[in-house]
Amino acid sequence: MPSEVNTQAVPDVHAPAASERSKAAATKNSDGTSTKLQGTKDGTTHADEPDTADKSKETTPGAEPQPSTAPENKPQDLKARGGLKVANDADQARKQPVVAKTVPLEATVPVGTAAKMTIKELSLTKAEAEGIGQVAGPAVLITLRVDNRGRKSLDLSHTELLAFAGAELTPLAPLSDPRTTPLEPKLAAGDSATATFLFALPEAKPGAITLRFSTGNGENIQQLSGTPSA
Q: I want to staple 204 with a disulfide (CB 3.0 to 4.6 A). Which of 15, 75, 138, 148 is the partner?
């Protein structure tokens, strides 16, 4: 019978020791950060991610705040940007024109510096319901004339005529029918223009009618008053 052979496990001299597998080494980098070398089971090593956090951004309790480098938000120079002129224009626009002293319907009133306005007709009439919201009934028909005696054209695009009835100055609603004609936006130098307006009356005999006329050119509002003809 063959003799019994004793076999004994021979350790693998090429395998790294267990202590070597778990051991980690640290090395210093040239920038002062540290890199940790971690051992692996196969004996090789790998480097952990370097700690590259910017320590300069960390705040320390009690540290004094650093002054801001953002540009200072200084007030704008309104005068240099024309803001002063705009402000003056806005203040001027808020001022209401002055209503001139009341004159008779037959009077000629100034319009600007070189123009005149005259009421040519103010008569009682009847209006038909020509548009939405208009009611047929008693009305007053007003025809006026503007004469431009200046050397420049006159802007009439903002002309306004308001009418009031009685001593209480009850506002009258404007109407329109084939008899009404507006003023042209521009009146040339030396020319004349006429326009006709129609206003509804609260009653057939309203008493005195007061008119307020303005072209919007900055002059006073002209006010005329009188009794309309039948």
A: 138
Query: Among 135, 152, 146, 122, which residue's Cα sits nearest to residue 202?
Result: 135
Amino acid identity for residue 26 in this structure: A
The answer to whether 103 touches 109, Cβ cutoff 8 Å, is yes
Half-sphere exposure in the Cβ direction for 24 (13 Å, CA): 9
Structural domains of the chain in order of their starting residue, each with its CATH number: 103-226 (2.60.40.1240)
At 168, the amino acid letter reads E
Report the share of the chain in percent with pLDDT over 70: 56
What's the rounded Cα separation, in Å, for the pair 25 and 3?
51
How many C-beta atoms lie closer than 10 Å to residue 79's C-beta?
10
Q: Which residues pair with 104 in a beta bridge?
A: 225
Stated length of the chain:
230
| DSSP symbol at 55 | G
DSSP 2-21: PPPPP--PPP-TTSPPHHHH
Residues 6 or more apart whose Cβ sits within 8 Å of residue 71 = none
What pLDDT is recorded for position 97? 76
pTM of the model: 0.58
| H-helix segments, 55-124 | 83-94
Residue with tokens 């008493």: 207
Beta carbons of 207 and 170 less than 8 angstroms apart: no
